[in-house]
Amino acid sequence: MYVAENDAVAGEEEVLIPCIDKTTETKDKTPFGVVLLGKYELLKLLGSGAFAKVYQALNVETGKSVAVKAVSKKKVLKNGYTAQIEREISIMRRLRHPHIAKLFEVLATKTKIYLIMEFVPGGDLYQKVADEGRLTENLSRQYFRQLISAMKYFHSHGVFHRDLKLDNLLIDENMNIKVSDFGLSAVNKQIRLDGFLHTTCGTPAYLAPEILSKRGYDGARIDVWSCGVVLFALHAGYLPFNGYSYAVMYRKIFRGMFRFPKWTSCELRNLITRMLDTNPNTRITVDEIMIDPWFTHGGFVDPVIGFEPESDKYTARVKELNAFDLISFASGLDISGLFMDPSDSGFVERLLCMERVERIVEKVEEVAEIERVVAKREENGCGGVRLEGSDGNFVVLVGVYRLTVDFVVIEVKSGERGVESGARFWRDKLRPMLIGLAEK
Prior knowledge:
Layout: E1 2-4, E2 16-18, E3 35-36, E4 40-48, E5 52-59, E6 65-72, H1 73-79, H2 82-92, E7 103-108, E8 112-118, H3 125-132, H4 137-156, E9 159-160, E10 169-171, E11 177-179, E12 186-187, H5 209-213, H6 219-236, H7 246-255, H8 266-275, H9 286-289, H10 293-296, H11 323-329, E13 348-353, H12 357-370, E14 374-377, E15 384-388, E16 395-402, E17 408-414, H13 419-438
Antiparallel strand pairs: 1-2, 3-4, 4-5, 5-6, 6-8, 7-8, 9-12, 10-11, 13-17, 14-15, 15-16, 16-17
Helix pairs in contact: 4-6, 6-8, 12-13
């Protein structure tokens, strides 16, 4: 982001300097023009991070552009980012809001996990402010309303972004914003017994003081603070808290030391001041923001009202995968042992297959009937079968999981009893049939 060169009130001609580098890897060995997994033609590199690169790609079936986030499994494992990737996929696949970038599907190969996401062509608000300077109050209000609507939505789903900033607010072809990058987000289950989150994360200039204090924080309240920083930057053209070192910047954040530009209206001053309240207990809430006079000026209708998200055809009727599964299912890098109880003496095997889910289940039931084994489908759809020996001597569980629109993964594992008998049934009867399906 950009900060004013001094503490004085910035004028319209204020020179801006970078506070945090936005570097993009210039050398990329990806062979552009190659069609990824037969579906997506990579066109150009958009950016890169610690363990992932983002590309613009073309869906060869529909002719529409998508964004492809390519995650390196090696770097994920080496640097301990597995839980982070798992959360990002889990969160994005269930969020459907007009101002949140969509996740369409997740693919996996031996070395990479690919998140296929909505391509937002207009760049981000960081670049817009850098190129144009401060935005008009009305345009700032338009973007801010969309941000708050999205934030209220994901908060209602127990998600806290924790890295809301201009860089992560993308602009679509209709000049509306899309919140992106949930890589640092948290969910309710991460809240400790004291009622707070504790992980220190985010972008320095946007951090709330309670994160810096390292005593725990409320995820919703720190998102409100970050939105206050965003609104100030949109309106002023520079960040409220700045300095030539992090120590100076953090001192100003702790003390709530910032100055409004001379053109700021009284109503906007009041709203931003309440959002950048250093006391999280008295800081304005999302619901209070949405009835604030500056926010509602001219009338406001939440865009989520009447919005009907499209159905997700990739997860219909079958159990969904998380990132642990995606990593361990891919051939050549089976790390499932990292996520299983080491005291479990049972067997687990997975096969990749292009056959229909229903057809796979039917074949499993055919084998069970021939071998006089009791087969019972899962109650919630056709994605799994429980097999039990006729004399109750073993239990084998067969799960079928959608990996992509074309591929499924068949997972077979022993149940709670008869591990050796179940392993024999799998090895001698069930596995040959499933291998036959997988090799078609």
